[in-house]
Amino acid sequence: MKEQHVDYDQATGRMRSPPRQIFLEVSSRCNLACVHCSRDFGSPYGHPARDMSFETVKRLAPWLEAAHHVNLNMVGESLLAPDFDRILCFASGRGTLVHFNTNGILMNEPRCRLVVERQVHSVVFSVDGDASNFPIRGVSYAAVKRRMLLLDRVKRELGSDLPHIGVSFVLMRRNLHELPQVLEDLCGLLRVHAIHVQPLVVFWETLRGENVYDQEDVDDVVSASRAIAARHGSYLGLFRSQFGEDERNRTPDETPQLGAHSDRFGCIDPFYEIKIRSTGEVMSCSYGLTGGLDIGRDSLDGIWNGPWYRALRQRLYARCFEGRCANCAFIRGSRENQVVPLQPGVHHSRADRFVGPAPALGAAEIAPSWSGRLSRLFPSRRRR
């Protein structure tokens, strides 16, 4: 459990332990524009598309050396970053476990060999269904599966158990019943170590109609999917939800604590992890909470134990959820998030699709244009 690795002074809000998990947004650019992407975290101000500099990563060396986990991703496709390989080698040479999520498009054979040789601990592929992967993500399920199989083949050729291959699946109304069939397919072809499942968190009004809480059989589908995973020796965790199958409702020895919920701290994120955006901006959590801190300007301890972080921790420890925390879908589950109206004018940007290269993809595997398709695939639906 994450709480076991946190040394916190309740009186002052200071941390005696460093961040145990560090997320680096090595690129906020993407070669896709998935309809559920949280790139702007529901903000009307947007987020610049840029790559993290290697110099920024070097500044984080003391944290990287003390961390248990370093994740080379937040929002965006990390493999687009020109310095990705360099950053990967720098992070993986410091005795920590390195992970990253990917849409899979840029996982060619040289990249697969690099992550195996550097003993990256896990690579998680984003998959949102068989038939639904194309309309949701803009790339076919078959194309992503081929890259997962390529990584699996390279692992076997090099005689390595690492990286662990995982799957990330976002539950929506349109893809809920595709989860079991995807797991039957993938787990029958390669060793999938973990499947991370979470309900859609709505940042864009265009997805209002995809509320998965309208479906009465979610727990049944997840339970069946969990059984499929277990049969193949894989772990399936449902998190950030209010469903009965959520990890927080499982027995403690089964709980990897993927979500932010914490009985001790209220929200574990500001005590355990830190997120650095490609701009250098610091985020305290997965819901995009910021306090004006910047890794390029502020010292590491000035960030981690500065006034903003200390006040935030004391407030959360006292179970005082206010401001952005009051409606956090990641800590309270995503049910309310899917029915409460969003800030007017906030919507998914349809102009950012397919920035950057998409090598070795056929015309039938990736959408040539997305303009106008969102409104047809995900029509806006008013609350009744």
Could you characterize the architecture of this molecule?
This protein has 384 residues and is an alpha/beta fold. The chain is built from 13 helices and twelve strands. It has helices spanning 54-59, 61-66, 84-92, 109-117, 133-137, 141-157, 179-187, 218-231, 269-272, 300-304, 307-317, 329-332, 373-377; strands at 21-24, 69-71, 97-102, 122-126, 164-171, 194-199, 235-238, 261-262, 266-267, 273-276, 281-283, 290-294. The strands form two sheets. Strands 7-6-5-4-3-2-1-10-11-12 form a ten-stranded mixed β-sheet. The chain is globular, with a radius of gyration of 20 Å. Mean pLDDT is 84; it is low at 343-361 and 368-384.
What tags apply to this protein structure?
384 residues, single chain, 13 helices, ten-stranded mixed β-sheet, two-stranded antiparallel ribbon, alpha/beta, disordered C terminus
Would you kindly provide a brief summary of this structure?
This protein is an alpha/beta fold and 384 residues long.
